[in-house]
Amino acid sequence: MSRMIYCQYLKKDAEGLDFQLYPGDLGKRIFDNISKEAWAEWQKKQTMLINEKKLNMMDPQDRAFLEKEMEAFLFEGKEVQIDGYVPPES
Predict the structure, then answer these.
(1) What SS3 state is found at 81?
(2) How many domains, the chain?
(3) Which residues are within 8 A (CB) of 44 and not within 5 positions of it... i.e. 6 or more apart?
(4) DSSP β-bridge partners for residue 4
(5) Does residue 70 lie in a domain region?
(6) What is the helix, strand, coil percentage profile of the chain, to 5?
(7) Residue-wise pLDDT tens digits, 11-23
(8) How far apart are CA 16 and CA 48, in angstroms?
(9) What does the pLDDT read at residue 28?
C-alpha cells in the first residue's frame, strides 16, 4: 500500500517515500512533504551537482552546500544551477 502525501514540490497529491531517506528534521520534512517523483528529480540534480562541482561527500562544507541546494530545490522551487548544463528542450 503506497502512502499518499501532498507534495510541496509537485504541488499535488502524490506517492510518498517509503521511509525517511535523509537524517534529522530536514529528513522528516522531506518524508512528510516530498513525493517519490520529486525525490527522484532531486537525485538526478544532486548527481549532476556532485559531478560538476566535484563535491566530496566526506567534506562537511560540500555536504552543507548540497543540503542548502536540496532544500531550495524541494521547498522553495529554486532550480539547481549547474555550470555548462543545458536542459533538454521539451
Answers:
(1) coil
(2) 1
(3) none
(4) 15
(5) yes
(6) 50, 10, 40
(7) 999 999 999 999 9
(8) 24
(9) 98
